Amino acid sequence: MSDLQKQIQDAAIVAMKAGEKQRLAVIRLMTSSMKQIEVDERIELDDARVIAILDKMVKQRRESISQFKTAGRDDLIKQESFEIDIIQEFLPQALSEEEIDTIVNQAIEQTSANSIKDMGKVMGLVKPQIIGRADMGEVSGRIKSILSSS
C-alpha cells in the first residue's frame, strides 16, 4: 500500500469517528476507484498511480460541473465542488504559472526542441514532473504555443 493510500485510509477513519458522512462518502469513492484498478490490473498502486487516479476523478467532476451549469443544477454543482475540494486535499500542491513555465522552458532547452514536431519529447520530460499538479491539457497548450512561435 502506498503512502498516499495509507493517508486516504487514515482520513476515512478520522471522518468516520467525527461523523462526517459526506466527507466519508467521497473518501470511500476514492478508495473504491483505487481498489477497482488494483483488482482489474492485479497490481499494487504506487503514489504516482494514485495521484493519476485522483486527478482523473477531479477532471470528471469538473466536466460534470460544466454540464450542470448548462442545465442550471446548482445543487449538483455544489456537491461536485465539495467532492473536488476533498479529493484535492490528497493531491500534491498545485504548481504556479511561473513554476509551470520554468519546467516547460527547461524541458525545451534540454531537448533542443524548436518545432511542434518535438512536442512529444518535451511532453515526455515535463509529464513526470507535473502530473497531478497541473492540468496537462493547459501545459500541452503552452508547450504548443511556445514551440509554434519559435
UniProtKB/TrEMBL annotation:
<dbReference type="InterPro" id="IPR019004">
    <property type="entry name" value="YqeY/Aim41"/>
</dbReference>
<dbReference type="InterPro" id="IPR042184">
    <property type="entry name" value="YqeY/Aim41_N"/>
</dbReference>
<dbReference type="InterPro" id="IPR003789">
    <property type="entry name" value="Asn/Gln_tRNA_amidoTrase-B-like"/>
</dbReference>
<dbReference type="GO" id="GO:0016884">
    <property type="term" value="F:carbon-nitrogen ligase activity, with glutamine as amido-N-donor"/>
</dbReference>
<dbReference type="Pfam" id="PF09424">
    <property type="entry name" value="YqeY"/>
</dbReference>
<dbReference type="InterPro" id="IPR023168">
    <property type="entry name" value="GatB_Yqey_C_2"/>
</dbReference>
<protein>
    <submittedName>
        <fullName>Transamidase GatB domain protein</fullName>
    </submittedName>
</protein>
